[in-house]
Amino acid sequence: MSSKTPYKVLCVCLGNICRSPTAEVVLRHFCDEKQLNVIVDSAGTSNYHPNKAPDSRSQKHAIKRGYDLSSLRARQLKTQDFLEFDLILAMDHENFDDIQDLLKQAIQQFSASQIRSTIALMSEHDQQYPQQALPDPYYGEADGFERVIDQCESSSQAWVNVLQQQFQYK
Ligand code: 4NP
């Protein structure tokens, strides 16, 4: 990564209204704190909630922890994203498989040489939640939304350590 070209990360869940918007804002916070040249965005594998603001429960829990999700709007993951983003972070294993399936379409539509993205789990380097899914809070209670923030903080800090090292040796 040159010092001028931002590294681009896309956080992906199913609906893009609970987990991935939270991950987007939390990861951005930790990247900014370390002054990393990283752009963070989010998307959903489904198109269940196009252009919707994050779930009000996600917003309520996040703002209490200092994270403002209010300006975000949901969108579906698209094949062009594989040309644009360096790293695509899946919130759970099903998201991971769905992203891989769309990657196959992107390779057909474009060509393998144009694909920029590496796909990984949000929890890939997280010692506290190693390779664990970020549980979907949508049909659950308040504790599920708090857990999403806990895991996003822990996994984001782990990713920031990895990215810092990656940028140092480039
Ligand atoms: P998310 O949660 O994937 O974390 O945004 C969900 C949001 C909506 C639905 C499922 C999960 N839904 O079925 O509408």
UniProtKB/TrEMBL annotation:
Q: Does the keyword Hydrolase apply?
A: yes
What organism is recorded for this protein? Answer: Acinetobacter wuhouensis
Domain (Phosphotyrosine protein phosphatase I): residue spans on this chain: 7-162
What name does the UniProt record give this protein? Answer: protein-tyrosine-phosphatase
What's the short name of a Pfam family annotated to this entry?
Answer: LMWPc
Give the family, as the similarity comment puts it: Belongs to the low molecular weight phosphotyrosine protein phosphatase family.
| SUPFAM superfamilies documented for this protein | Phosphotyrosine protein phosphatases I
Q: Which InterPro entries match?
A: LMW_PTPase (IPR050438), Ptyr_pPase (IPR023485), Ptyr_pPase_sf (IPR036196), Tyr_phospatase_low_mol_wt (IPR017867)
Residue numbers annotated as active site: 13, 19, 136
The family database entries (CDD domains) matched by this protein are listed as: LMWPTP (cd16343)
Q: Which UniProt keywords apply?
A: Hydrolase, Protein phosphatase
According to the lineage, what is the superkingdom?
Answer: Bacteria
Top EC class, one word? hydrolase
Q: Does the keyword Chloroplast apply?
A: no
Q: Which GO terms describe its molecular function?
A: protein tyrosine phosphatase activity
